[in-house]
Design a protein that fits this description.
This protein is 27% helix and 29% strand. It is an alpha/beta fold and 183 residues long. It starts with a helix and ends with a strand. It has helices at 3-10, 17-33, 49-61, 112-123, and strands at residues 11-15, 39-45, 67-74, 87-90, 100-108, 128-136, 149-153, 159-160, 176-179. β5 (100-108), α4 and β6 (128-136) form a beta-alpha-beta unit. Bound molecules: inosinic acid (IMP) and magnesium ion (MG). The site of inosinic acid (IMP) has 15 residues, from β5 and α4. Inosinic acid binds at residues 47, 75, 82, 105-113, 158-159, 164.
Length: 183
């Protein structure tokens, strides 16, 4: 079997490109309605890069002109399970003091990654820190945090695609899917 066929057989679509596009457009409208001045979008790498790229362009369509920065956080996952420790693998380049920040991440699961990032930026003097996630998996929450904006509630399964990986694979898929069997 060629790799493409194998991949199609092994990943079941949960959210299609059209469903994602519709939610991203709606989210950008909700964010624009907040009228946040001097907004800085902070995308948490790596998983959020595709979502953030689509979101900022939808924000532009809604008349916004955010600045964009990246921060790579590592949550020491062992396989598909989060260990609880979060560390900064690559920090922001600029200052967040006095800025309204929109933190963008792929999945809110235990909540530790986003809570860590939110506390860090608040401690650095951000004027406000709002959070926006593609997927919310509330079943696995370990710390109290709620996303201010979210595209979808996600079933409690391991997902890949649209920037998200399993062992560094599948980030390029244009949809969010679940691994049906190991590939
Ligand atoms: P949290 O700190 O437990 O909320 O973990 C969130 C991070 O774990 C996300 O930003 C993802 O990078 C990763 N993650 C959680 N669930 C999945 C999944 O189903 N697929 C891929 N990555 C995941
Ligand atoms: Mg992540």
């Amino acid at each position: 079997m060629d790799p493409t066929t194998q991949r199609r057989d092994s990943i079941e679509t949960i959210f299609s490109p059209a469903q994602i596009a519709e939610r991203v457009t709606a989210l950008a409208g909700e964010i624009a309605a907040k009228k946040l001045e001097n907004l800085l979008v902070v995308a948490v790498l790596k998983g959020s890069f595709v979502f953030a790229a689509d979101l900022i362009r939808a924000m532009h369509t809604n008349g916004m002109a955010p600045e964009v920065e990246f921060m790579t956080l590592s949550s020491y996952r062992k396989g598909q399970v989060s260990s609880g420790q979060v560390s900064i693998a690559r920090d922001l380049e600029g200052d967040v003091e006095g800025r309204n920040v929109l933190l963008v991440d792929d999945i809110l699961e235990s909540g530790r990654t986003l809570a860590f990032a939110k506390d860090l930026l608040a401690a650095r003097g951000a004027a406000s820190v709002l959070t926006c996630v593609l997927l919310d998996k509330p079943v696995k929450r370990a710390v109290t945090i709620k996303a201010d904006f979210k595209a979808f509630d996600c079933p409690n399964v391991f997902v890949v695609g649209y920037g998200m990986d399993a062992g560094h694979r599948f980030r390029e898929l244009p949809f969010v899917g679940r691994l049906v069997r190991p590939v």
